[in-house]
Design brief:
Blueprint (H helix, E strand, L loop, with lengths): L1 H22 L14 H5 L16 H9 L9 H15 L9 H15 L9 H4 L17 H11 L1
GO molecular function: kinase activity
Protein name: Histidine kinase
InterPro entries: EF-hand-dom_pair, EF_Hand_1_Ca_BS, EF_hand_dom
């Protein structure tokens, strides 16, 4: 019996809280900043007349240009295979024109040897992290935080 009474009181409290929340006036905070005063506008730099445009070269155009060594807008078989030949030549240690399995696997075995820090012949999860391919760092443009601009406006106002 007490459970039913406690449940009924809880339901009434929830309904009362909902009514209070619905009838409460909403506060609106505008996310836009107030317009700067005339004396602040005078000190600002004017906006450029033109919109900056991205470079016309796309990723594929840049990739194409890496292969097109003579810049004639055509990739010959020799130009296409040049990077492969260089990689093959680096692996062909004895320069016999053939890759044996040890020559082919040397990069992997060297990577394993470097990663196996404790020289146990096995890699732990922390050692395995060292085998991840190295990625080029992406260029990131950082903008000043919005809070700095808001703090400056409060100091001036």
């Amino acid at each position: 019996m007490w459970r039913y009474l406690a449940g009924g009181i809880a339901i009434l409290l929830v309904i009362a809280a909902g009514v209070l929340l619905v009838r409460m006036p909403a506060r609106s905070v505008s996310p836009l900043r107030a317009a700067p005063a005339a004396d602040q506008i005078a000190g600002m730099e004017p906006l450029p007349d033109t919109v900056p445009e991205a470079s016309p070269k796309t990723r594929e155009q840049k990739r194409f240009n890496r292969y097109d060594k003579d810049r004639n807008a055509l990739i010959t078989r020799e130009e296409y295979l040049a990077s492969r030949r260089k990689a093959y030549a680096r692996l062909d240690v004895d320069k016999d024109g053939r890759l044996s399995f040890p020559e082919w696997a040397v990069k992997s075995t060297d990577k394993f040897t470097l990663a196996d820090a404790d020289k146990s012949g096995t890699m732990t999860a922390t050692e395995f992290v060292a085998t991840a391919p190295k990625r080029k760092a992406a260029v990131r443009v950082t903008c000043p935080p919005a809070a700095a601009g808001a703090a400056r406006e409060e100091d001036e106002g």
